Amino acid sequence: MSDIKLDDGWKALLAPEFSKSYMADLRAFLQAQRTAGKRIFPKGSDYFRALDLTPPEKVRVVILGQDPYHGEGQAHGLSFSVKPGVRIPPSLVNIYKELQGDLGIPPARHGFLEHWAKQGVLLLNSVLTVEMGMAAAHQGKGWEKFTDAVIRAVNDLPQPAVFILWGSYAQKKAAFVDTSKHLVIKSVHPSPLSAHNGFFGTKPFSRANDFLVSKGYAPIDWKLPDDPAISPT
To answer: Which parts of the sequence belong to the Uracil-DNA glycosylase-like domain (predicted)?
Structure first.
């Protein structure tokens, strides 16, 4: 991963992680996978895409996912997001339904969430790579320690943020977040298996914006552009 670029702000905050033994082990694992001919998603230049699009000083909201999508052409480094032209995954369909119920925003016709990321929504997966067709294949290889460090870094930033934690996995991972400083919004996961048991009606988007405005920050524009190529810089 030495050839992968990372936003300078994150690089400064996370520099100690790159010298730890778990990261060397992770590099060796990924190299061995590539040598064995395994397809790894997302592509190497997108491993840290979430961090590059949302530098530390811009973080306003964190939406924590678990693993990248493992289908061809889906993952591009942002939790819950897929590339333009790719079918919208079921969990994201439900996220859009809740967005409509919460803020009246009609569901987007694509699943490309960079518009959110560029406004300060850190769309962070716990594990940043996966083998094609093998869900959770890279769990327990070191990424979790790295993304724990990312969450700790956000927790320690001077500005308050909103942590949207869908499902028990995300809630356990970010259990240490300082709730006296940050807003933590919890519910069940938007997966079709659980969304009707406590996801719909939780209004995470309006609650996040109300908190941000109360702290003097601009609200997030949750409406995705019709053309996924159009987003704020």
So the answer is: 52-212
